[in-house]
Amino acid sequence: MLMNHNRKLTQITIRLFGVLWPWQPGAPGCLVSLASRTPLRRPNLLLQGLAILLVVAFAGSCLACGGAGQAESTESSGGSQTFDFFRMVDAIDNPVTVQYAYAPSIVVKDNVYHVFFCSGGDIFPAWDYVRYVKSTDGGKTWSNPVDVLHATAFDGMDLSACDPSVVYFQGFYYMFYGSAITTAPSVFQTVIQVARSTALEGPYLTYTQRGTWEDTPTDPQVIIRPLMTRTQQPSGYGAGQPSVVVLGDKLLMWYTDDSLQAGAPGDFGPFRLYMLESSDPVVWTPDATQQTNISGQDSPDIKYDETGKRFVATWVLNMFTTNASLVRALSSDGLNWTAPQTVIPATQFLPYTNNAGAAADETGHLLPGQVMIGFGRPYSQNDIDNGRFDLFGVLVDAP
Q1: Could you give the CA distance from residue 178 to residue 189 in angstroms, rounded to a whole number?
Q2: Which 8-state DSSP code applies to residue 221?
Q3: DSSP letter string, 51-67
Q4: Nearest-5° angle of CA 257, CA 120, CA 233?
Q5: What distance in Å separates the CA atoms of residue 224 and residue 54, rounded to the nearest whole number?
Q6: CA 263 to CA 260: how far, in whole Å?
Q7: What is the sign, positive or negative, of the torsion defined by CA atoms of 104, 156, 146, 364?
């Protein structure tokens, strides 16, 4: 999912692979009209500073204005619990390349946090790139972002590389990710593609229509398409936001698809979460009967809890609002989920956050102890509407 925000203080415009979806603050999920694209520009630093001061005065939280790795704390009203929020990717200092950072896939290996995330595409006309950072000290400091996967936008296809999910399976690290295709003039839908590498940090080679694995090919193979191809507006979002777990000799994937009920632009109500199973990373069969009971929700991230023998879905509830909170749901079969449980309530969570990802091992299994959660967070409260997000993180207790 790519977010490109029109510069208005009263309206957020979310671009989902070519479709601009304005959202009115105070009405979560209610997107009212299309808006024109605007280029991302470096925020006015004076306005940013004033906005930060206002947020601190209003929320009573301590904002660390330094680079990645500096902590930001907020306490519960009773003072019984403190969450320390830290910056993982400093997108504000990379306005031309990184631009924004959100929707992380976090893999923990040998006590190193490896983070793949959605960011700006700096080679026109591609929309998004997947970039990578790592931390060797538990999240205190982070490496500089590097590109790991590009979109080509060749012939109106392969328009994006976003929403990655990385797992190790049968000798390779596979990165499942969202792209987009043109279905008719000025009509686009999200699709899912895959790349792989012998090393976690890359390089990643994309699977092609010719059955090969290549660096930035012009003919990547779509492995999951929307259940319904739409060639006129409203085209909706499509099929994307994959989240993959390895269980035994199988790959399990959850992804969102709104194509069967695509409504007015920006309506997240039609979003449905589906679960698929495969023993071959490049062969998947979308099935409408594999719909879970999570609906109307953007970008859940799913891991497996070995201790509880259950799946754990994590997401930001009420994204892009002052009422954002971090929640999770549990499931024994991946299809039927409990009601969401609050992990960090809105009174303690950072406002206007979006698109969370939970840390796990290289097979998507949760590790003992606390879990690192990453999510997008505006550079400043003055830039909520400009598609400018740093990647932040927090440690929470395991389920």
Answers
A1: 10
A2: P
A3: HHHHHHHHH-PBPP-SS
A4: 40
A5: 45
A6: 9
A7: positive
Amino acid residing at 272:
R
Q: How many CB atoms lie within 10 A of CB 37?
A: 11
Task: Give 234-260 pLDDT, tens digit per residue.
Answer: 999 999 999 999 999 999 999 999 999
The secondary structure of 315-359 as a DSSP string is EEETTTSTT-EEEEEEESSSSS-PPPEEEE-TTTSPTT-EEEEEE
- Tokens standing for residue 101: 């950072």
What CA–CA distance (Å, rounded) separates 268 from 29? 6
Q: Which of 162, 155, 154 is nearest to 120 (CA)?
A: 162
Is-contact 10 20, C-beta < 8 A? no
Q: Residue 93: which residues within 8 A CB-CB, separation 6 or more?
A: 67
Q: Using 50, 70 and 90 to split pLDDT, how confident is the model at 385?
A: low
∠ CA 36-299-249, rounded to 5°: 140
Q: 3-state class of 92 per DSSP?
A: helix
What CA–CA distance (Å, rounded) separates 345 from 396? 12
pTM value surpassing 0.85: no
Whether the link from the prior residue into 203 is cis, omega within 30° of 0, is yes
